[in-house]
Amino acid sequence: MKVPFLDMWRMHGPLEEEFVTSFRKILGKNGFTKGDELSEFESNFAAWIGTDYCTGVGSGHDAIVLGLQACGLKKGQKVIAPAMTFISTITAIIQAGGEPVLVDVDSEGLIDLNKAEELIKSGIDFMVPVHLYGQIVNPKELIRLKEVYNIKIFEDCAQAHGAQRDGIRAGTVGDGAAFSFYPGKNLGALGDGGAFVTSNQDFNQKMIALREHGQTKKYYHKYIGSTSRLDNIQASFLNTKLRYMDEWNLHRINVAKSYSEQIHNDQIKLISNKLDGSHVYHLVIATSDNIDDLSMHLENNQIGFGRHYPIPIHHLECFKQFGWDKKSYPNAEYIAYNSISLPVFPGMSPTEVELVANAMNSFGLSQLRVAS
């Protein structure tokens, strides 16, 4: 039996008729942008996250670029960011006018806040923590850094829809935050989309302008903006899916819990193993010193898997002008080169979880038998 890495139909199939009805409604009234569907989703998503405002945009990447600008990032300003993240975090900082300054991550892939604090003490006053894999960076510590040093914090929540710790939800800690609705995300569109959330009215008003050519009203352009809209069709689909998010996140957590109970192999380690709601398991990450052999083993057992992200940020050719020391980020390097992502999605069956666990547990056994 083949186990897919991701099967979105198990979420979308039961909602097909509702999606079709929404599409026909929008098609019939010719209302494709800036309509009631978008306003309703923005209101509902802000309420679910716990912020005062939400502004829908065309992608999670745009939400970071425009969101940083809305929050006051200045041209040439240095911005602390983790060395383990998707490239979008770093390129967005650059495109928004900032200069990324990398910090290594801890053993679970989250930005090392102790090292970040040293950079803050040196005078850097803008930081983009990434809630990687679905786990929230310690929110109380982020709040402390913000209060003690008067820095700006912009959260990259692209993988952390609904993650919370100590009663604090991802997206509510910083001056602003970005979410991605790429189809494979915990809350994904049936195309693409993103959102900026904040509780600062001024930042929100600027973001609304920036997403539409910088205009504050038609043909009155206060800023150099962009064209980045979350259309009504995608907003409607997202609004439908939002109703199921708590249920779907719980399913992901239960899959991760089953993995932690069933996978027992000294050659494999599950990282970021948090089952308290602070991790909503966009990804379940396993590490091994024999990652290529493990990948081949899973392929041979028809187990889908991913690699997030196999080339460290500081090794990518497009960033060579920054001259980042390749020896300064050992945890980011280890995770990049030695991790895989296991299947996790709403609707994944106990049988599929068991098949994945059995494949993980059998890794290395054939080699051990040969050796003996």
Continuous helix count: 14
| CATH superfamily placement of the largest domain | Type I PLP-dependent aspartate aminotransferase-like (Major domain)
Percent range for helical residues? 40-55%
CA distance, first residue to last residue: 30 Å
Tell the overall outline. Answer: globular
- At CATH level 3, the topology of the largest domain is Aspartate Aminotransferase, domain 2
Reported for the largest beta sheet, the result is: 5 strands, mixed
Return the string of H and E elements. Answer: HHHEHEHEHEHEEEEEHEEHHEEHHEHH
Summarize this, please?
The protein has 372 residues and is α/β, with parallel strands linked by helices. Helices cover 40% and strands 14% of the residues. The protein has a five-stranded mixed β-sheet, sandwiched between helices. The chain has a three-stranded antiparallel β-sheet with strand order 12-13-14.
Write the layout of secondary structure elements.
Layout: H1 9-12, H2 16-29, H3 36-49, E1 53-57, H4 60-70, E2 78-82, H5 87-95, E3 99-103, H6 113-121, E4 126-127, H7 139-149, E5 152-156, E6 164-165, E7 168-169, E8 176-180, E9 194-198, H8 201-210, E10 215-217, E11 220-221, H9 232-242, H10 245-262, E12 269-270, E13 284-287, H11 291-300, H12 330-338, E14 339-342, H13 350-362, H14 365-371
